[in-house]
């Protein structure tokens, strides 16, 4: 429902055809499922009195049964009794029966009273059909009654709970035109739900609007705004709302302080967060475990787990006992920053306090250790848990260990963990098998990889897309392209469909083995199918077309990239510049360099290496020194290949050129072991030049 369906308020299906709607929720009779201890003939003489008596005795179903039988038999029940039944059922939260009686009474022309309409609205909201309650508001107005803010708030809340916040706002605007003014409940309802769906700024605007209409924001209003501003990272706005709140002498609750402290801490503003803690103390509000958890989480999130550890000590000193959440933030934080011993100490403390970590925490710790390459520590942690019988490792824990060991090329130990997992009656997951198969293919142990594939199928573990990607990639790297093609064709015909990475891997392998025609055909198939080429796909084929000397096809590919909206990346420009240079098209290479820079990409050592070689081939000394000055300005570090290129260029310069005068000063920045700063290279050149001058003299 959108705001257009609310305008005007009365035009809703419920108004003109309530019977059809109510039939959806109510049976026509309850007689089939109810047995009563009287016969209808015994009470038919005075059904209204009996109905009221049954309601007074809380026999609601029996009262509805008698009500329906009376109406069906033609006994005219008074409007007073009919509405009394609806009102009493509503007061006792018998929502289904309310709608059932309402349907029956309106079907015989009995007009509902105001309280009956209220009961129907409450019932519709309760059964999560507030959109129909909107039309009942219109029916109230049409019947000559005045809609009050209580009923409007009921419907607003119902719409919001059903994620129809925009409709709720539309209803609020509409009823205002009928003179129904908002109150604090209206304000808090709309502000809370706007904040919940991330529209905090709109909530602030609405608060200001309703305050002008006489509504006063209270602690609940500010709590919703501050909490959600902090949740979405708008800490500054949350602080502004807090300051406004205090200026109005509405003192924040501990929940508001906690939201601010957590938000500021997570945002890296720890001093301000501690200031919030100080404000709490001034208001004689003691920080609770939630306060400390927020601060500890923020510190760990910002790589300050050691300070978080100090805060833990302070927390305990002040008499606040850490809970599972405290430890779940702190221990992984310490592990991530490399303070493994401290992390183990905190874990041990936690266990001594009979706070047994959940499996999720253990898995998180093992993942952190494996990601850092500290697989031995991860194994120690796992074995310690097993020895102490604190937890039984699950498939995820074993798989994390296997992945960590495979990444470190410790396949024998990975196999041992795998066998231990099977020995503990746990079935390996597809992720487990993917990790092992990938590792064995990388180790060129095809026999073991295929044995694991066989085990996987025998144990009815279905391979996923990544399984096939691993195998295609592995066989391509082993040079077994025909097997990779077979796997590719199989999944293309029978599923799951190959990914763009699978296409790219196979295309690259075909290019490397010289099957240029097959690679091009595969690219064409890709473009015509559901898997659209990405920039890496184009890079592979562009490089291929250059190698084949087919510049016409290269230009066609570049045009196709533009048409398909695929933006070139750094590697695209590097390929183009390199190939233009090798073809002797230096001007085209320079033109492409300008385009590259205009797109926000900075040339790297590979681009400069290509340009230097081409300039050297052309004997263009000025261009060589221009490029070297650019390299110096951008701090390009030299590896052995680029160093060799520069030396070659120096050897081919004219004898009457003063090399050392023209060469610029380069950055002192060092890089990998195989690289040297340009300044070091120049110093060696200077030394060699001096030696030559001495020898000549």
Overview of this structure, please?
This protein is an all-alpha fold. Among the domains are: 1-180, Alpha Horseshoe (Serine Threonine Protein Phosphatase 5, Tetratricopeptide repeat), CATH 1.25.40; 603-696, no CATH class. The protein is built from 41 helices and no strands. The chain is elongated, with a radius of gyration of 38 Å. The model is unreliable at 1-40, 666-674 and 692-697 (pLDDT under 50).
What structural category arises from helix and sheet content? mainly alpha
- Summed over residues and divided by their number, the pLDDT gives a mean of 84
- Helical content, roughly? over 70%
Number of strands: 0
What top-tier CATH class of one domain fits best?
Mainly Alpha
CATH topology of one domain: Serine Threonine Protein Phosphatase 5, Tetratricopeptide repeat
Name given to the CATH architecture of one domain: Alpha Horseshoe
The total count of helices amounts to 41
Shape: elongated
Strand content: under 5%
Report the span from N to C terminus: 96 Å
Uncertain runs with pLDDT below 50, 5 residues or more? Answer: 1-40, 666-674, 692-697
Major beta sheet summary: none
**Could you tell me the radius of gyration in angstroms?**
38 Å
């Amino acid at each position: 429902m959108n705001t257009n369906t609310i305008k005007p308020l009365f035009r809703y299906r419920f108004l003109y055809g309530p019977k059809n709607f109510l039939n959806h929720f109510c049976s026509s009779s309850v007689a089939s499922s109810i047995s009563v201890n009287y016969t209808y003939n015994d009470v038919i003489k005075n059904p209204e009195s009996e109905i009221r008596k049954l309601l007074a005795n809380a026999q609601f179903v029996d009262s509805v049964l008698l009500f329906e039988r009376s109406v069906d038999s033609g006994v005219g029940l008074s409007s007073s009794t009919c509405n009394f039944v609806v009102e009493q059922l509503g007061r006792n939260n018998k929502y289904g029966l309310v709608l059932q009686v309402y349907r029956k009474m309106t079907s015989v022309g009995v007009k509902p009273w105001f309280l009956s309409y209220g009961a129907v609205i409450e019932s519709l909201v309760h059964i999560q059909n507030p959109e129909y309650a909107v039309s009942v508001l219109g029916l109230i107005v049409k019947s000559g009654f005045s809609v009050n803010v209580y009923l409007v708030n009921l419907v607003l809340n119902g719409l919001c709970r059903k994620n129809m916040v925009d409709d709720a706002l539309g209803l609020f605007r509409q009823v205002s035109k009928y003179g129904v003014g908002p109150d604090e409940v209206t304000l808090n309802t709309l502000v809370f739900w706007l904040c919940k769906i991330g529209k905090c700024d709109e909530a602030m605007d609405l608060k200001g609007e309703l305050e002008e209409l006489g509504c006063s924001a209270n602690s609940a209003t500010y709590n919703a705004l501050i909490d959600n501003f902090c949740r979405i990272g708008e800490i500054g706005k949350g602080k502004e709302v807090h300051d406004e709140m205090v200026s109005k002498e509405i003192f924040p609750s501990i929940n508001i302080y906690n939201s601010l402290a957590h938000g500021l801490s997570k945002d890296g503003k720890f001093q301000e967060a501690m200031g919030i803690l100080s404000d709490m103390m001034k208001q004689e509000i003691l920080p609770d475990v939630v306060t400390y958890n927020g601060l500890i989480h923020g510190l760990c999130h910002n790589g300050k787990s050691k300070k978080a550890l100090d805060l833990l000590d302070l927390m305990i000193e002040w008499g606040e006992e850490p809970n599972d959440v405290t430890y779940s933030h702190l221990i992984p934080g310490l592990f991530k920053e490399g303070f493994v011993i401290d992390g183990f100490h905190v874990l041990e403390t936690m266990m001594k306090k009979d706070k047994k970590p959940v499996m999720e925490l253990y898995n998180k710790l093992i993942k952190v250790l494996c990601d850092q390459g500290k697989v031995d520590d991860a194994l120690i942690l796992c074995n310690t848990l097993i020895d102490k019988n604190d937890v039984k490792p699950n498939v995820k824990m074993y798989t994390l260990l296997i992945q960590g060991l495979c990444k470190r090329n410790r396949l024998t130990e990975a196999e041992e963990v795998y066998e231990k997992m099977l020995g503990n009656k746990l079935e390996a997951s597809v992720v487990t098998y993917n990790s092992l198969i990938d590792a064995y293919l990388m180790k060129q142990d095809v026999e073991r990889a295929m044995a694991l594939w066989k085990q996987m199928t025998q144990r009815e573990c279905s391979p996923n897309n990544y399984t096939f990607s691993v195998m295609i990639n592995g066989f391509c790297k082993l040079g077994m392209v025909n097997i990779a093609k077979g796997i590719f064709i199989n999944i293309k015909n029978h599923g799951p469909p190959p990914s763009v990475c699978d296409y790219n891997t196979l295309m690259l392998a075909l290019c490397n083995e010289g099957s240029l025609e097959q690679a091009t055909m595969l690219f064409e198939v890709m473009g015509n199918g559901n898997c659209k080429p990405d920039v890496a796909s184009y890079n592979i084929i562009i490089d291929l077309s250059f190698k084949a000397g087919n510049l016409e096809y290269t230009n066609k590919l570049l045009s196709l990239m533009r048409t398909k909206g695929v933006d070139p990346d750094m590697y695209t420009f590097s390929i183009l510049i390199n190939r233009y240079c090798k073809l002797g098209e230096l001007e085209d290479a320079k033109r492409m360099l300008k385009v590259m820079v205009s797109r926000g990409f900075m040339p790297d050592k590979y681009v400069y290496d290509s340009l230097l070689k081409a300039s050297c081939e052309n004997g263009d000394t000025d261009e060589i020194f221009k490029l070297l000055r650019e390299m110096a300005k951008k701090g390009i570090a030299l590896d052995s290949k680029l160093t060799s290129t520069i030396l070659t260029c120096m050897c081919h310069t004219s004898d009457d050129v003063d090399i050392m005068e023209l060469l610029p000063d380069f950055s002192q920045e060092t890089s990998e072991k195989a690289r040297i700063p340009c300044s070091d290279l120049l110093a060696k050149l200077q030394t060699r030049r001096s030696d030559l001058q001495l020898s000549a003299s």
